[in-house]
Amino acid sequence: MIAEPQVVLTGVGPVSAAGIGRDEFLRGVRSGEDFVAPVSLFPTDGLPCSAAVEVKGLNLGEHLASEKTYLDRCSEFALASASLALRDAGLTLTDDNRHRVGVCLGSAYGCLGTMRTFYERLLTKGAKFANSLLFSHSYVNTPISLVAIEFGIQGFHCAYTNGLTSGLTAIAHACDVLRSGQAEVLLAGGTDALCETLFRALCDAGTLAPDGSAEGWRLGEGSGVLVLETAEHARARGARVLATFAGCGMANDLEFNGDGVRRAMQQALAGAGISAAEVDSLYLSANGTGVSDGAERRAVDELFGELAPNCHALKQRLGEPLAAGGPLCAIAALGETESGSAALINSVDRGGGCVSLALRRGEGAAATS
Question: CA angle, corner 180, sides to 174 and 185, nearest 5?
Fold first, then answer.
């Protein structure tokens, strides 16, 4: 029986309020700073919620070869993340390898800001004056398409929209694709951006935390792209290995009693061949939603008991960055776990979907084995 290829992580590209790029992001995470602040991107007058977590200081010109006519904020984040990840991995795309390099990218809401602008013009001025440029930038799969075009990626290509779990779903599927031999390298992760339409809708739905309350989301934004490779490919090019993606679990917790979250974590551990006692760090999906946070806590108690690992609730400071949440937690795990230690990353959607990924940090281990 031929063993499945091992999947390793060789580069990351975080774009977050905590920092842009691996080193700056990890410093921001370790700082303990709370990045929640009043919204500056659009007016919040008359709304019970006026705070969010915005990405600031992104200079897209540092990451792209040419100036673009128009980009949605969600696409800007994805492009910057992909550029940072490729640079961090030391990976150069050429005509010889680009057909074996692909992209798996998730987004909960995609380019919603551009979609609103397009339809406002369409409805007020009529179809004759609809802006075709805006239309082409309004799809949920626009960010992944622009990434493939910008960097000349010609291999496996798939966009995912699965609520808050979209980013981890993309990473989980990317691991399966690499193990199946359909690609040698995949850029995988998630991206989402703040926009007025989404903020107002979630505020009206009671999803966001009213000012002065801890119950509910603080909406965030950002992107997290990871460069995943087969260990064989990483060895062949002498790549530095940051971690090994060892297992994945998916389940549904429709009743929010913790059963689905627990099963997802158990699947991830079983796939990785890791016991609960070996887990050093657990990155929670906790975002201020009482019912799902409570289900996750129950699942952790049931699975780990008195052996509960160090639990991190980054969304308390980074807000709920939607599809970027899981990937950013995976990147954070690189800086907060020791070499060889195991971490679990959870993502729980408000519809009950659960994804859990297990990684083992170990720079150079897989590439030199």
Answer: 50
Q: Which residues of 315-350 are buried (b: 16+ CB within 10 A; e: fewer)?
A: bbbbbbbbbbbbbbbbbbbbebbeeebbbbbbbbbb
- 305-321 residue pLDDT tens: 988 899 999 999 999 99
Dihedral, 71, 229, 6, 160 alpha carbons, nearest 10: 20
Q: Which of 185, 34, 45 is nearest to 104 (CA)?
A: 185
Q: Which domains are delineated in the chain?
A: 7-236 (3.40.47.10), 246-363 (3.40.47.10)
| pLDDT at site 34 | 95
The confidence band for 1, taking pLDDT boundaries of 50, 70 and 90, is: very low
Alpha helices per DSSP H over the chain: 22-31, 73-89, 112-125, 132-136, 142-151, 166-180, 196-204, 231-236, 259-272, 290-304, 315-318, 325-336, 365-368
The pTM of the full predicted model, rounded to 2 decimals, is 0.95
pLDDT digits over 279-307, tens only?
999 999 999 999 999 999 999 999 999 88
For residue 201, CA distances in Å to 18, 44, 188, 196, 359 come to 25, 12, 28, 8, 35
Dihedral of CA 302/306/308/313: which sign? Answer: positive
- Tell me the C-alpha distance between 79 and 60, whole Å: 8
DSSP letters, 50-88, are -EE-------GGGT-SS--S---HHHHHHHHHHHHHHHH
For residue 241, give every residue at least 6 positions away whose Cβ sits within 8 Å of its Cβ, in sequence order, or none: 8, 9, 10, 231, 234, 362, 363, 364, 365, 366, 367
* Radius of gyration from C-alpha coordinates of the chain: 20
Question: Rounded distance, CA 312 to CA 79, Å?
Answer: 28
For 23, other C-beta atoms within 10 Å of its C-beta total 12
Contacts for 99 with CB less than 8 Å, ≥ 6 apart: 154, 155
Residue carrying structure tokens 């842009």? 20
What span, in angstroms and rounded, lies between the C-alpha atoms of 214 and 45?
Answer: 20
Whether residue 94 contacts residue 154, with contact meaning beta carbons closer than 8 Å, is answered with no
Q: How far is CA 15 from the centre of its chain?
A: 10
Question: Cβ–Cβ contacts within 10 Å for residue 124, how many?
Answer: 8
Best CA proximity match to 194, nearest among 317, 59, 349, 50 = 50
- The type of residue at 166 is S
